[in-house]
Structure prediction request, 1248 residues.
Amino acid sequence: MGETKPVRVAVDIGGTFTDLELHDGRTGRAYAYKTPSTPGDPSEGLINGLRGAAEKFGFTLSDIGLILHGSTIATNAVLERKLPKGALVTTQGFRDVLEIGRHIRKNVYSLKAEPRSLLIPRRHRYEVAERVRSDGSVEVALDEAGLRAIAGRLRGDGVEAVAVMFLHGYRNPVNESRAAELLAELLPGVSIATSYESSPEIREYERVSTTVLNALLKPVISGYLERVSGRLEAAGVDCPLYLVQSNGGVASPKEAAQMPAKLLLSGPAGGAMAMAGLARAHGMGNLVGFDMGGTSSDVSVVIDGSVGETAESNIDGLPVRLPMIEIRTIGAGGGSIARLEGGALRVGPESAGAVPGPVCYSRGGKIPAVTDANAVLGRIDPDAFLGGGMQLDVNGANAVLSDTIAAPLGLSLEAAAEGILDVATMHMAAAIRLSLFEKGADPSDFALAPFGGAAGLHACAVADELAMDRIIFPANASTLSARGILFADLRHDLSVSELVVLNEDAVGRLGEIVAQLRAEAREMLTRDGMPASRQRIEISCDLRYRGQAFEIATPWVELGGDAVPTPHAISALIRRFHEVHETRFAHSAAEDAIELVTVRAVATGLLDKPSSEVGGTAMPERPQWSRQVFIDGGWREVPVYDRAGLLADGGGAVIEGPALVAEDYTVLLIAPGWRLKARSGGDLVCERGER
Amino acid sequence: MTKGAIDPIKLEVIRNALIAGAEEMNLSIWRTARSTVVRETLDYSTALFDGQGRAVAQSTRIPIHLNSMSVCLDEIAARHIPLDDWREGDIILTNDPYCGGQHLPDFVTFQPVFVDGKRVAIAASIVHHVDIGGGAPGSYFAGAREVYQEGLRLPPMKLAEGGRINDAVIRIIRQNSREPEKIGGDVQAQIACLAVGKAAIERLAKRYSGDVIADAMEAILDQSEVAMRAAIADVPDGDYVFEDFVDDDGQEAVGLKVHATVRISGDSCVVDLSGSADQAPGPVNCTLNMAKSAVYCALLCVAEGKAMANSGAYRAIEVICRPGSIANCSAPAPVANRMATGHRIVTTVLGALADALPGKIPAAYYGVSYVAALSAPDPVVEGERRVYFEIEVGGWGGHPTGDGASGFSAGFHNLANSPIEMCETLFPVTFTHYAYVPDSGGAGQFRGGLGLSREWRLESDWGVLSGSFERFRHAPYGLAGGEAGSKGRFLHFRGDDCVALPSKISGVALRKGDRVRLETSGGGGWGSPSRRDRAAIDEDVVAGYVSEKAAGDLYGG
Prediction:
């Protein structure tokens, strides 16, 4: 998998910008580049970015040896319901499982039920006679005649995608795979997804939900990939392309087109991956990634050097049962709006979005947002917002904030603006505290790593609230997600769901399962072109005490390399489960029986790692200047530093807060009591001094 | 600073910190508890009170619990342990329905929090414990005639004094439970969460003085009162009367009336439940605390989330009920299955307001926690037995602006179902279907939501079935000309025979191959069926939510 051409490109396509991070093997340096996104066909922005970067940094498109591609295409297709017409074929008696869900509600006090997402209406959900039991035995073989009749109706309905989910299909896929085979034969051109391939895990609702998403996304992602490869070819780019998955690894286009549900929550994955790299670079085990954008903030957690993962998440209320990086999203961003409710000041979760946006954007926004509060307090330079790309209307923000918040509350304009920021800080700090608290961790043991457009202005306040002593402002924060992608590896997640009482007697069955997983994993990596030396397979088990209905992923480190399950390795796994349970839940039960629910394999194909030295963003040199900023109760003349300038002087600069540090697309506020030091790698480290 | 004059910014920061504190307490219980009742069905709640014992901020959990803790605290402070005797490091505990509790499995704990020597807040939690003794496992003894048969009663007491836990109390609790390890662990979790609440208040106290925090809490209560009064003021003045029925007490009482007079004057409301039936011999009785919790839940729904659920909102509401009635039972009436009546109080109060609030009140929801339990041999571990609990829900009532939701948690409780594949793996059952019941939603301009049907077949040689249901005799009502929703059914199939079981059963013996089907009730319909949109009727028929025949009969197709 060695790249024969010198340039590796990571692309992160967001709603507003397409970010590129490039590594040139000839110079060993990395560069960042930004270009506007092209929502109509995102691949156009990708090509624009490649061309622009090539010109700026001096390489040709034929020099590109590898493209790693992150995007929100799958996510947006679901959120905007730009999906093909789909159907579900399921076990006789269970077509309503998809609609019933788990039937718990979020709004506790309401007279009308909250709306629930449903991707396939009942008239397109079909039942067929077949039945597999929980032990995998086939009680009823697939009724092929019945399925043929269903296929006829699907054809008549003009269905473009079919999900197949049979009960216990994860345990024995024989009926599902036969049904898929028949449907493929009878419905040429229709995309088909089975549950045993989409999410081979016990729990029918979560599995069918994932399968349906997979089926509906297949045509969307295939179509996109065709357009991308066409454009790349036309532009003279001839290199492998990989897509970023929600699990933080990348997959080949073929794999991504087969399992597009794995892309669904990949948007924030790049940033989280960058957090792991950042923690490594600073020799720290614990880090909270805080990505604050316009409408929301994403929190990711690195504990003991590893990014937190989860076995399940959801999109728009629809469960996605797949291993992925754990992200907690908070409804607090630069666009969160402030309003009075019964004399109380509320901030968010509603957002002004990009349009009309905050008042100061002059796009028709009439409700003050967090960004307006920052503008009112002088913390954003109205002439240099988004690298000077947008002139901010501070007077407009002053007027609206005055009329709608300050005057009714009898506060000064500044006090009202500070108040909005205080409330927003409290929301963000509370969410971060909860994220750590549920893992049994204490915020004061963590450093905060802010990135994304709005985080730099709020980081010190959030860290103060959480009693964190250290903030790391990563280099190239506005393209950080792309930077994380640059260091990705190929990754496949495989699993076998089977209830096994975990004791030494299970050694035979576990040996079979592990051997099966490893064989499949090797086959997949080999298909990706990975030589054996670059293949790494890690085994873990989802375990629980008998009687519990939730599991804990427990790594089985004894099964490194080709090691097979032995009674000794099983005892070690049991011991580790007790320990993990103790850490997370403050108790363990050494005498209780343990049930194994799922065995998992993470198959990694190691890609070369470029060196992490950052070459800067080709930012124009700016002189140091100062601005009037309202901080700690009064207007003060606060120095403004150019971030590029801080690095230019060899990385030895030390700045005492209050200060502002300007970057191309964002600004950092160093609050009083904090001290900033530049590091040669480009990251800025901020520590709390004596207050 | 004088009362009510608090800076609105500080107020909002403190309000959010208090809500976050209650959520952290919640997470702490989930993280450290042992039993499945707590960990999976999430049957617990947490709250922060002010120093005077008024609920201010609560976690997002179960309405039944949340709105009962303040009444409990009032009762303890007034009659048992005055607040001035609550000292630093004390923990107050009770589970006694006749001292402010609900039923014996629910333990309520409180811990005062002091800042500069002044009591600024009280951390509180309520947890449903897995077993506290009595005549049946789980402490749900359907045959109980007195509370003494329902388990161990703990009068309000100091579980801890000055930070020292009274181990004798813990030992007594464990000794009286069928699950000593689990209840011991869950009590520890309940104690630990109070420290988390205390820490949240102490964190706030680093930034704000105790007086500012107290003023903020007062203001939060005032805001909530204002919002609740605004919602009540939207209701025209008058007396609104409604009644609904509990099927039976599972013993001898049938058709137990729940009667409400809701008296609105200006922005205040009095709910008088005195016209309700006399207390029943069987355990479907509510203490006044439970009845108040149900009334608060109904009115918080009427306020549609605008009033924060706390003691400020309760100020606008007075609940009265004749002692000795099913909604204010007198000792020693049994109370374990109080939910049967609790749900009915919610639907009765909402029904009373229907005419007063046109366009707002839906027809009745299914109105019961459908709980069934099967005891059978363990398919995984030979020689052991397992108890399978099934908790189901039904349809929401049609709303003046739209159809009711089908098969979705409503009203007084909030419960998740159990995955079928997990049930089949852990218990000797095979499911034959899990589906909506066609035609179960009450007909109307806006149709009631559908009930659910869940049927399994027993695979083991024997099984013993129990169940606690409602709405088998008295269907969820329709409104404004809408039809009632369907009644629930519990069917036992053996070969070609089918027996309809009563709504409250225990000890029904099953054999291999027997099938058991629970059909939950649909919601009532809203508005005359003749006004239903033709396209909506056709869509329902295409989807199969309504059969062609019913569409013709009910909607004149």
In short: Chain A touches chain B through 70 residues (CB under 8 Å). The first helix of chain A runs from residue 42 to 57. Confidence is low (pLDDT under 50) at residues 615-623 of chain A.
